[in-house]
């Protein structure tokens, strides 16, 4: 099975590129969607997140408190690193299982939509990596349109680059 990795920073257009691949008939695994699954109500990453960040990190309905976690983690590099280590381990495990399922189904190709490739072993499983890039002058308005403040958008872009 030929695996194409699509990567790039937040707001660069990875999902748009992956969408083009999907529209062309290729299956796509979206790491961000899997991340939301592992941190949703009863998600497999929640016990570790609660242990690392305390009860405020979980909402009353049992999901990760995204707003609180983001406000804390994107201001504190060690906290972001701790959160990333927890979530990425579970996302990689789920992606591995799903890649194998596509392989067993006889898929000829697969697209992995992953924001942060190098330090998490992503490039090792890909036959080809497509890097999507956009200037911050494009990215920041995209992130603001998603509901982020301009300062938060700049902070997240800066944190992803370190």
CATH topology: Rossmann fold
Q: Report the sheet with the most strands, covering strand number, pairing sense and barrel closure.
A: 4 strands, parallel
CATH architecture annotation name? 3-Layer(aba) Sandwich
Q: What's the overall geometry?
A: globular
The residue fraction in helices comes out at 40-55%
Structural class label: alpha/beta
Note the total helix count.
Answer: 8
Roughly what is the average pLDDT, rounded to an integer?
91
The tally of domains stands at: 1
In whole angstroms, the N-to-C terminal distance is 32 Å
Instruction: Please report the total strand number as a whole number.
Output: 4
Strand order of the largest sheet: 2-3-1-4
Instruction: Give the strand content.
Output: 5-15%
Q: Provide the CATH top-level class.
A: Alpha Beta
Radius of gyration: 16 Å
Spans where pLDDT lies below 50 across 5 or more residues: none
The CATH fourth-level homologous superfamily: P-loop containing nucleotide triphosphate hydrolases
Order of helices and strands: EHEHHHHEHEHH
Task: Provide structural commentary.
- The structure is a single chain.
- The protein has 162 residues and is of the alpha/beta class.
- It has a single domain (2-160), classed as P-loop containing nucleotide triphosphate hydrolases (Rossmann fold, 3-Layer(aba) Sandwich).
- It is built from 8 helices and 4 strands; from the N terminus they run E-H-E-H-H-H-H-E-H-E-H-H.
- It has helices spanning 14-23, 31-38, 46-53, 66-73, 77-104, 122-125, 136-145, 150-160; strands at residues 2-7, 28-30, 109-113, 128-131.
- It has a 4-stranded parallel beta sheet, sandwiched between helices.
- Helix 2 packs across helix 5 (77-104).
- The longest helix is centred in the middle third of the chain and has 28 residues, at 77-104.
- The N and C termini lie far apart (32 Å).
- The model has no long low-confidence stretch (mean pLDDT 91).
